[in-house]
Specification:
The chain is an all-alpha fold and 130 residues long. 76% of the residues lie in helices and 0% in strands. The longest helix has 25 residues. It is found in: Cell membrane.
Length: 130
Amino acid sequence: MLVGALLTDETFGVAINQTATRPFISEKWMHGLNTTAYLNWIAANIAGAFFGKWITNPEKFGLDFALPAMFIGLLVLLMVSRSKIVIDMIVAISAVAIVVGVTLVSSASIGVIVATVFAATVGMVVEKWK
């Protein structure tokens, strides 16, 4: 229950990356990962509260892109650690094409939802077909 209560998107990404090379992740390992992530989050918030007043324009430094960049980094690490890079690239290209296409006729939020469902389906079909 504690592992699930402390789980975040980032720790899930790191944990799923570990399952690519190991058949089992211990509860102690997950608690260490989650605790480390929360301590880092607390330290980053304290630093942000202290130093944030000196950064008047975060976009100038690319700080508005920090969260998406972190998720892209986690995705790249996961893709590199797997031996299914071709399938992963097919899914990634499908997702980008779908989100761009749907966004042209609808909102970006709908585009992301549609791309997620269809790209995941494409990945499953390609993996089962191979």
